[in-house]
Amino acid sequence: MSTEFSRGLEGVIAAESALTYIDGQKGILAYVGIPIEELAEHSTFEETAFLLLHRRLPTRAELQKFQEELASQRPLHTHVMNVLKALPHQASPMALLRTAISVLGHFDPTPDDVSSTALREKAIKLISQMATLTAAIGRLRKDQEPIAPDPTLSHSANFLYMLTGKKPDAAAARVFDVALILQADHEFPASTFASLVVASTLSDVYSVISAALGALKGPLHGGASEQVIKMILEIGDPARAEQYIQEKLARHERIMGFGHRVYKTYDPRARILKRYSHQLAQQAHDARLFEIEQIVEKTVIDALGAKGIFPNVDFYSGTVCYYLGIEPALLTPIFAVSRIAGWMAHMIEYLSDNRLFRPTTRYVGPPLGHYIPIDQR
């Protein structure tokens, strides 16, 4: 008897969640019922993280307390920083981040406590320190000394300060804040699902987040934005863009930053980031990269839009960060700086009614037989 199955679990409902709503046909994304456009316009990353962790918006007093708690958890244990400094600085930033998160677990006095209260406390620590670790990795890659966090700055402004050594202006900090909001959660992509598979075993939170980082590291998931900006830089000149893409299409090569398993129309996050990419290009008085993006977008949509292939969040996130002075190699770790809020929110939600993940397979091997002694083979 044959059993139906879905390759890659596409379309399979694996859990119920009150966190993120997506309508891929209409291009709708909402966190806890609030459209992403409204959060990008009015919220902050800290408030959005609270929204995901508690499934409601905070009061003014709650938000202030949450911001203070996040700021207090930014500094890293000296031994964690020493381990990070001892690792090869030119290794993959995602590999360094994955190792660093694992090391953090050794300095948690209650790493195996997965009660909802403990997880919310660990979430604050991990949201804060994911940013500190990523900024430190960015500086170590350039043989620069990591910069201690500034508790007076917002989460986004502090990250840019720790990375560059300069306190960003309000406009730059706001753009980066929006980028973090847009990537804070997205239902059940590979990294979130991987994290929940591990969480369902009641493993510790550091193992859970390490699994998420391992999945995010792949170029078909979090690594796509890095590939996009590399493509844009390789094109280099708007005059080359259309031919470059046409040649890739003729070779049936994948155009990174286009298409999505869920969205069959324009990714709402990409639409928002496109506006900020244009804004940053104007401020930098250098529209070259943005112009290349526009030509690439039009060329791909003209060729593949009828198949539901449009820009996704990765297409513009790379140039936004590049205009902010962030090197391409850090784009996937920065994705984690944002998505850690969603990963922790899903873990808290799922463990409130935990069920061990244990799917099955459809066997397609040979029929039952018998062992053949080696001298008879």
Order of helices and strands: EEEHHHHHHHHHHHHHHHH
The number of distinct β-strands equals 3
How much strand content do the residues show? under 5%
**Spatial sequence of strands, sheet with the most strands:** 1-2-3
How would you state the average pLDDT, rounded?
94
In terms of structural class, how would the helical and strand content be classed? Answer: mainly alpha
What would you report as the Rg, rounded to the nearest angstrom? 22 Å
What shape does the CA trace take? Answer: globular
Q: Which stretches of 5+ consecutive residues score pLDDT under 50?
A: none
Number of helices: 16
**Separation of termini?**
31 Å
User: Largest sheet, if any?
Assistant: 3 strands, antiparallel
Helix content: 55-70%
Please, could you describe this protein's structure?
The longest helix is centred in the middle third of the chain and has 25 residues, at 116-140. 56% of the residues lie in helices and 3% in strands. Strand 1 and strand 2 (28-31) form a beta hairpin. Helix 4 (78-86) runs antiparallel to helix 5 (93-105), helix 7 (155-164) crosses helix 8 (170-182) and helix 11 (224-235) packs across helix 15 (313-323). It is built from 16 helices and three strands. A three-stranded antiparallel β-sheet has the order 1-2-3. The protein is mainly alpha-helical.
